[in-house]
Design brief:
It is built from no helices and 39 strands. The protein is mainly beta. One of its GO terms (molecular function) is complement component C3b binding.
Length: about 350
């Protein structure tokens, strides 16, 4: 006979209640929660034109693995992402993606397309012409993208087409050779962005039966600021480059020095704003007083006030008090009752 106590199963146990077993008797065992047998697990699958969304090289039964397709590819369901599940017989499916394709679109009866193919790969271009003397309205070619054809397919129009008024202005850009009052159907105008601006969209627009196609957009180029400027007798608080537009860093002055100017500087279009100064406290200039100061009154203009002194004053005929601070010899804001 065999004793249940003589069997040791790592991370598992015999599931039957008997304690002794006769010779050749079979029994069953189970794994502890969170454990599986070696034949009930899956190794990391081979990815075809895809990548996993999570790390891991070994997966338990019923574990799910999410993946995403590389750019320009999709899985058999026509999606750019999917998931597979670890089962007793291995993974539920292949983690595979296939190159996206465009099929021949529905076209105007009089529109001819070249080249003639059943399917097109991403990046392929389809060119058009009209038959029976008709006039093309729209772009003369379209391109296959991962989302389909773009721009919209043209149509073939019978008879006259309208001309266009002068093309619209481009914000942060300008058109090239725009000197005419009228532009013929299919005529093209080219645009360029101002320095430090990048163009999003086609740099050309076309007159299509009296209407211009969509304008591009000029977007300000993101410029990174270089090293933070040094200031004498001061330090910058730790920060991590690169410094993009809108990022700020903070300064501090060493002991016995006072800060004059803003504590923070900001990266604006690739340039840092003006940094502060650290001036020895015994070198700070005093500010001359004003007759407007309360409660010093007439004597105030004879008094000199230390750096960082805050004074209040009231203008004639006004109920509210104004305030000003002495900053290294100058009042901020300036002491005045002029509007």
């Amino acid at each position: 006979t065999c004793s249940k106590n003589s069997v040791r199963i790592e991370n598992g146990f015999l599931s039957e209640s008997a304690f002794t077993y006769p010779l050749n008797k079979q029994t069953e065992y189970k794994c502890k929660p969170g454990y599986v047998t070696a034949d009930e697990s899956c190794d990391r699958p081979v990815f075809e034109k895809a990548r996993a969304k999570s790390d891991g090289t070994w997966f338990r039964l019923n574990d799910r693995l999410d993946y995403e397709c590389l750019d320009g590819y999709e899985n058999r369901d026509g999606r750019t992402a999917g998931s597979i599940v670890c089962g007793q017989d291995g993974w539920s499916d292949k983690a595979a993606c296939y190159e996206r394709e465009c099929t021949v679109p529905e076209m105007d009866t009089y529109l001819n397309a070249y080249p003639r193919k059943e399917t097109f790969k991403v990046g392929d271009v389809l060119k058009f012409s009209c038959s029976q003397g008709r006039i093309m309205v729209g772009a003369d070619s379209v391109q296959c993208y991962h989302f389909g054809w773009s721009p919209k397919l043209p149509a073939c129009k019978e008879g006259n087409v309208k001309s266009c008024a002068p093309p619209p202005p481009l914000l942060n850009g300008k058109g090239k050779e725009m000197h005419k009052e009228e532009y013929a159907h299919n005529e093209v105008v080219e645009y360029a962005c101002n320095p430090r601006f990048l163009m999003k969209g086609s740099h050309k627009i076309q007159c299509v039966d009296g209407e211009w196609t969509a304008l591009p957009v000029c977007i300000e180029e993101e410029r990174i600021c270089e090293d933070i400027p040094d200031i004498d007798h001061g330090d910058v608080k730790p920060s991590v480059p690169p410094y993009h537009h809108g990022d700020s860093v903070e300064f501090s002055c060493r002991e016995a020095f006072a800060m004059i100017g803003p504590r923070f500087i900001t990266c604006i279009s690739g340039e840092w704003t003006q940094p502060p100064q650290c001036i020895a406290t015994d070198e700070l200039k005093k500010c001359k007083g004003s007759k407007l100061f309360l409660p010093d009154g007439e004597l105030a203009h004879k008094i000199e006030y230390d750096h960082n002194t805050n004074k209040s004053y009231q203008c004639r005929g006004k109920s509210e008090l104004k305030h000003s601070i002495c900053i290294n010899g100058k009042w901020d804001p300036k002491v005045t009752c002029k509007e």
